[in-house]
Amino acid sequence: MRSLINRPAPRRVALETTLLAHGVPSADVPGLAADLAAEIRGAGATPCVIGVLRGTPIVGMSDAELAGFLADAAGGGVAKANTSNLGALIARGRTAATTVSATMELASRAGVRVFATGGLGGVHRGATLDVSSDLTAFTRFPVCVVASGAKAILDVPATREALEALGVPVVGFRAERFPAFYLRDGGAGVDASFDDVLSLASYVGEEIARTSRGVLVVQPVPPEHEISAPDWSRWLAAAEARASEARGRDVTPALLAALHEVSGGATLRANLALVRANARLAGRIAAVIEGDGGSR
Ligand code: PSU
Ligand code: MN
After folding, report:
1. In the chain, what is the greatest distance between 2 CA atoms, to the nearest angstrom?
2. What's the predicted TM-score (pTM) here?
3. Could you tell me if residue 296 is inside a domain?
4. 226 in a structural domain
5. 284 with 43: CB under 8 angstroms?
6. Per-residue pLDDT tens for 107-143?
7. Which ligand 1 atom lies nearest to the CA of residue 98?
8. How many Cβ atoms sit within 10 Å of the Cβ of residue 38?
9. Based on CB atoms within 10 Å of each CB, which residue in 36, 51, 139, 149 is the most buried?
10. In the chain, what are the helix, strand and coil shares in percent, each to the nearest 5?
11. d(CA 178, CA 219)
12. Residue 50 belongs to what H/E stretch?
């Protein structure tokens, strides 16, 4: 296997490339990437974009590498990698966006302990056996993922049950309920909720050291961006009708894109706001775990 490029930096926070390549419209991506980097730096940590460029996994893309990757992604030439196909894409010399599971794998190999994203993959609705490899990744890779729960397009209570069954710790930051991406309450609970960053981060650091497994930290979407339940059920039904042809790995990006359209951009604005907030919190956790006081 081609070797991994690992660019060390103090207090790194991983960012996945699937969110950038397949999760938001390409026009919004450069601004989002810059905003996430600024949130992480503002918290006293270093952004670390992870993906695969022409067969080489990179932990900490340079600005030029990221720009080239995003140009390829806008042209549709970037594959989507989870832990199942990551190695095959590397072997084929492909350029690939890494999902939560593949990003956790590469981050853990490079010693990155904290990772920010929007929402996890999970158990899809209906009896499809379509379950994201994001969930089992927590049992294997010692990384703290900060997310707004699981994506609302999923069966969120079933996703929460699956995490429980896999023994994955799920803790809230100022959240007693497990969020569903655009919705602050996804209809399930958390294992514990922490009200201050210092106690959250020291728990995370000790849990990872004690178990060598991952930890999921959930933070609900900022209240001003939450989508109301009636809007959500209307938009989801319309988006499911539009994306009904998508299968397998294409389901999540197709549904997210359809939602952004049918909601007149409301789901996109919520998505951008929650990822930014998660980047900020992840930066603060990294600053504490890797010793910068966490004062910000
Ligand atoms: N969070 C977002 N947007 C996204 C994703 C997460 O705000 O597009 C991506 C993540 O990379 C996650 C993936 O791992 O969607 C899940 O895809 P699937 O359901 O095919 O496993
Ligand atoms: Mn899937």
Report:
1. 50
2. 0.95
3. no
4. yes
5. yes
6. 999 999 999 999 999 999 887 788 999 999 999 999 9
7. 11
8. 15
9. 149
10. 45, 20, 35
11. 8
12. strand 46-53
Q: Indicate the pLDDT class of residue 194, thresholds 50, 70 and 90.
A: very high
**pLDDT confidence of residue 1:** 47
Two structure tokens written together for 167: 């023994």
Radius of gyration for the alpha carbons in the chain, expressed in angstroms and rounded: 17
pLDDT score recorded for residue 2: 54
Distance 261 CA to ligand 2 centre (A): 22
Which residues are marked as active site?
Answer: 16, 151
pLDDT greater at residue 145 or residue 25: 145
Q: What is the CATH number of the domain that holds 143?
A: 3.40.1790.10
- Nearest ligand to residue 50 Cα: 1
Token pair of 72 as six digits: 């390829």
Cα distances (Å, whole numbers) of residue 32 to 15, 158, 173, 227: 11, 30, 23, 20
Structural domain containing residue 203: 5-289
Number of domains in the chain: 1
DSSP string of 51-79? EEETTEEEES--HHHHHHHHHHHHTT--E
Instruction: Judge whether residue 153 has pLDDT over 60.
Output: yes
Give the ligand 1 atom nearest the CA of 22.
8
Q: Is 19 in the pocket of ligand 1 (CB under 6 A)?
A: yes
Residue 149 CB less than 6 A away from ligand 1: no
Is 174 a domain residue? yes
CB atoms within 10 A of CB 58: 23
Say if strands 56-59 and 46-53 run parallel, antiparallel, or are unpaired: antiparallel
d(CA 292, CA 296): 9
The answer to whether residue 282 is domain-embedded is: yes
